[in-house]
Amino acid sequence: MTAAPTLPERQEWTVDDLGELPRDLRYELINGRLIVPSPVPAHQDLAFEIGFALRGACPPDFIVSSDQSLRINRRNEPRPDLVGVRIEHYGRTPVPVEDAVLAIEIVSEHSEFRDMVEKARLYADAGLPAYWVVDQNRPEISLTEMVLGPSKRSYEIVNHTTGVFSVEAPWPITIDLPRLSARRAGILERIRLR
User: What are the structural domains, with CATH classification, of the chain?
Assistant: First the structure.
């Protein structure tokens, strides 16, 4: 019997070190820290719902992908929950951040600071045009829309809503957040009644 594989011990990781990881390990590299996420079904369910809304009017030159690595620099290879990328990357990973037009993170129980602050700084500094954060940890699901400001190095929050969210860029997208909140409330009620 062979021993189970173990992860190399490091305080600081770079993209060069990622080749030592098991090929089937899902990871993110954020500011040199290796993060191994394990989302719960509620998180994944919401990601699917939002992904379907994104795909509805996605132009033919782009594709919506989930759990896709974006190469930013030697210390950062985040894996947004959803991302809009140029179609040329249909069979590739990681995708260069320059070929992404939108990244979306769904806040998990322990990821609010990382999603709202660390990743926002990281994506803005890399020049990603749009970044959305969906918060599912309150009674009503909310979406915060951020776009690059005039300096092209930081985001401006242009919308924060729990209502129906509609934008024209990067393509026309509408997400019915009240419907998603009601759906989640119905699921939680069924669980409570069991």
Answer: 15-192 (3.90.1570.10)
